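Record type: monomer structure entry
Structure origin: computed from sequence
Chain ID: A
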Amino acid sequence: MKNAFDIESLSLERRLSDGLERLAAVARQQDWQTGEANNLTPTQADILQFVCSRPEGTRLAAAAAQAGVRSATASEAVSALERKGLIAKDTDPEDKRAILLKATASGEEITGAWPSSFDRVVSGLGADEQEMALRLVVKMIQSLQIRGLIAPQRTCVSCEYFKKNATPDSATPHICALVGASFADRDLRVDCPDHLPTAA
């Protein structure tokens, strides 16, 4: 039976959403400050970070999807980054008609010095709390990806090599078949360069 406090409160889902929005605002503020210090707009900073995380190169459509902007907006941001000498365009060796975006040495140097925008948020948590939060974050990313609400992510849980709870009674229950190693939830990756998407 609900008491007066419960009746006056917003739903748990709404309160959680509000809390996450406040945390995201702190992270966005860090991103804006970092971008401004490097004469970059938030979209330019997002795209530059994404391209730097793909040393093999990436296409404009993938960068746009990651930044959550239209292709035209991403194209303008990439042109600006190219003028600033932070991104270069290269021919895709697999499709000579396609263009790959690659970070220059200057682009990599700038992003390498950037603080993680959520450092302030997670640094107040203990190791066990961070592990629990990571599990929840990975679960939320997977849910969003399944529903088509975000671009495909290179997470362990969406990888062909990931064997969930292969040894359930172990402290390291999961196995990465690529390297043949077992690992725990605290080791889950949200952006692995060796990611191989699971078959649909």
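Annotation 1: Residues 166 and 178 are 14 Å apart (CA to CA).
Annotation 2: The two ends are 44 Å apart (CA to CA).
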